[in-house]
Amino acid sequence: SCAVAALVALSFSGAIGLTFLMLGCALEYYGVYWPLFVLIFYFICPIPHFIAKRVSDDSDAASSACRELAYFFTTGIVVSAFGFPIILARVEAIKWGACGLVLAGNAVIFLTILGFFLVFGRGDDFSWEQW
Does residue 89 contact residue 96 with C-beta atoms inside 8 Å? Predict the structure, then answer.
């Protein structure tokens, strides 16, 4: 079915993103594991959306403000995830090549998270809430 194909594609893209992150850490030339802290950003990125979805219902005028606040916090989390490896490279804690790999991994992972919510967040009978 279409949802299963979407789930397989999202899993594959998530694996590619994590591979970029691991390459930025584990290659012998780089060898520093500080960039793994961006995993925290991956885990906390969907939390504002979940809270806004739980708190607001669509008939309420305040739900729009709650949703906008969730978008604001999510944007801050995503920007922080991109800024973190750049700051690490600026202070020479990691090399710039590792920073590039981590940034590529960030782009793939966050697009995967966005794709997950676009595919499974519609609220139809086959939604992410079943997972």
Answer: yes
